[in-house]
Amino acid sequence: MSLIFYPDKCTACGLCLDACPFGVLSLEHEKLIIGQGCTLCGTCVEVCPLAALELPKEEAPSTRPQIPPDGIWVFAEQHRGKLIPVTQQLIGEARRLADALQVKVAAVLLGHQVAALATTLLAAGADKVYLAEHPALAHFCEEPFSLALTELAQRFRPEIILAGATYVGRAFIPQVAAHLKTGLTADCTAFDLDPEKRLLLQTRPAFGGNIMATIITPFTFPQMATARPGVFKIRPPVHNPTGEIIPVALTSLNDPPHSRFLAIVEEIKERLPLAEAEVIVAGGRGLKEAKNFRLLEELADLLGGAVGASRAAVDAGWIPYAHQIGQTGQTVSPKLYFAIGISGAAQHLVGMQSSDFIVAINKDPAAPIFQIANLSLVGDALEILPALIQEIKKTKLSNRL
Amino acid sequence: MRIVVCIKQVPETQDVHLDPVTHTLQRAGVKAIINPFDLYALEEGLRVKEAQGGEVTLLSMGPPQAAEALREALGYGADKAALLSDQAFAGADTWATALTLAKAIEHLGGADLVFTGKQAIDGDTAQVGPMLATILNIPYVAWARKVTFSGDKTIEVERLLDHGYDAVAVDLPAVVSVVKEINEPRPPSFKAKLKAKKENIPVLTLADLQLAENQVGLKGSFTQVVKVFPPPARGVPQNWTGTPPELAARLWARLQELGLQGC
Q1: Could you give all domains of chain B from N- to C-terminal order, each with its CATH number?
Q2: What is the pLDDT of residues A287-333, one digit of tens each?
Q3: Fold type of domain A72-247
Q4: Contact status of A290 with chain B (Cβ, < 8 Å)
Q5: What is the share, in percent, of chain A residues with pLDDT greater than 90?
Q6: Which of A142, A303, A372 sits opposite B142 (nearest CB)?
Q7: What gap in Å lies between CA A251 and CA A55, rounded to an integer?
Q8: A210 vs A177, A207, B23, B258, CA distance in Å?
């Protein structure tokens, strides 16, 4: 299938050439040439002011399957008996969507000896909790988790499944989607509904956040998405929740497994994971040496945040790779992001530019990071940081008095 | 050991950006590169081959020019490459891509170990690897930073998760996605590059696979893109200068105003 082009509408304005992320469009004698390599991403269709370009339309199958009965599911992610906050965030969002669709919200809790968490899930806004406990689910491993969630989805048939786009969610949810032969959208930052068609409109960043795309799963169920942690708000807890806790037995884990969890090799205990942090204090080459990361840690602790780093700082050995933000590290979108002594190479920007509020501190007034920062402080981070830490301590102290 | 490394040709993301004023997508002559994460997958494939024996096959799906990415990747020392290219494959979502790759791997005689990069830098989905494993009906392990053999049919994988690193045991055949921490890719070799130049890279089309036209490309996709738009604009940026104590006091006051003072 290829892009549909209406030559009589085209004025050879060239907007689509600039917009094409793949560079496959060109003009020859004012005639548009669609080269090899078009992925039908639709960016050119959006920018064309004259509607001279169109995506080929897929013919709808005569019948979309009947709407499955079991409403919206949220995968309840926990680690060692503690819920990961994206779970409650997604239950809050699922509640909003479910109320609009007039269906129920179910949290699906997979683990071993985790029953105590079920009430918290009800309090977060779930109408019911499917509780599947099994020794093979004590620690995360793709195989048992994907088999268990697939089995439950086949048995109870949800209309929508949401999960956090954590390392865990992104590892096994695609397998569940493949087992169920349905669509999956990764790392969404917004959901909406087409209530008439009961379509979940899933919006996510692409090209490192340079463009946003809205994606649907039009012909199959469940509609599935992973969602970026920290984007959706946790609702105030329901007191004395009345929802139902439904223990379920699994048969899919009876066969001998082909992969198994062995051990935790190394635990990052000291700070919360980057993906969950509302505040991230990230440092780069401008910090000059490893010991200056202590300033970042102090600031992060005062603000209840996590420490991140640019690739330059990680490559210099100042901080482990798990803290790296950017193209070859993690993508984050906290409420507040400090870029300290980070010049702002494109590879770093793509990992953090969807943060809500960005404060950049850099000596170089021409640093590219200032292009995307909300607040740009030109100066020496090693002088500004200690002063900032003092200010914050002063406030916190006077609040306590 | 039959090792397959999946490679994707991607536009260099740093060339794709938004005009800060007009918020339109700007490209300064987009350069096509090998997805950076795939180089770590390739290096791991080469290391496993060196330790265990066998053959490394590169597999990619894309337009005809993606053959260049495969040729470049062959320059690192892989044994052979195959390109999946057919207009029918265009517009494939992650499911349709994974299905096409799975059928191609079967067509090429199967694999004992498939390596993929953590994700591609254009789509950032990280979905093709796990879907590929599911379609091939073999185990998948994500985010590997270390792969060791325990016996010739089982590997032990150390992998990154949100809380730290776990070890898992995986029976082969399997699909493993790797993070950048796993190795330091070698530079391309002159000899391999010379050989790669002359290498005939076979192109597999729909006709070569056990698939119907409505199972691939846009038609075979479960998801559809309905809209593409620029990200929401940021507020008017502010530039501050001053002495460090002034800047610090002003910054802290502003963060409190905005309710961003943390906990």
Answers
A1: 2-215 (3.40.50.620)
A2: 999 999 999 999 999 998 999 999 999 989 999 888 999 877 888 88
A3: Rossmann fold (3.40.50)
A4: no
A5: 64
A6: A142
A7: 44
A8: 27, 5, 9, 26
